[in-house]
Amino acid sequence: DGDLLARLRERGRGRLVGVDVSTAFIAATMQQGVDAIDCDLNLGLPEFHDGSFDYVVISETLQVVPNVERLLEDSLRVGKRAIVSFANFGYEALRNMFADAGRVPKAPGPYGFDWYDTPNRRFPSIQDMLDLCEKMNVTVEDARYYDDGKGIRVEPTEDPNLKADTAVLVLRKH
Description:
Helix content: 25-40%
Strand order of the largest sheet: 3-4-7-5-6
Largest sheet: 5 strands, mixed
Structural class: alpha/beta
Strand content: 25-35%
Low-confidence stretches: none
Distance between the termini: 32 Å
C-alpha cells in the first residue's frame, strides 16, 4: 500500500518504485506520492535494467511466488542488494500448534489463513532461506530476527529459527 516507500521518501531516499499486481495496492501507493507499476513478480523484474537500484525490498513475498530463486536472482540483478523479510514457518509456537493440535497452525499476520485459502505456496524457515542463499552463492550481509508477538528482537545466539517469527536479511551476490 506504499507505506514503507512513503517513509523512505520522507527520509530522502533516492528513486523509489513499488511493484504489485493489485490495482488497489498500486493506486494506494501512488496516492502516497510514490511511483508504482503493475508487475507480476512471478515473471521476475524484466522492466528494470541491471543495477537500477541500490536496494530491492522483498517484503513478505517469498512464500507466495512460485519461483523464489528467479525472484532472488532478478532482485540481485536489478539491485546491488536485496532486503528480504519473511515469516519464519519454523517458529516454535507454530511447531507446537502443529504437534499439539495435529492441524495446520493459525496465528495473526501471514499465518492467519486456513490451509485451503492461504496465499502461501511455501512455508520456509529461516534455516531453509539460509540454505537457499548458500546454494545460490548469495551472501547474507546482515540478518535481523524478531518475535513480533512479543515485540522483541531475537539475537542470532538465541536460535532464531526456533525463537523468531520474522526474519529480515540483507543479501548480495558474491
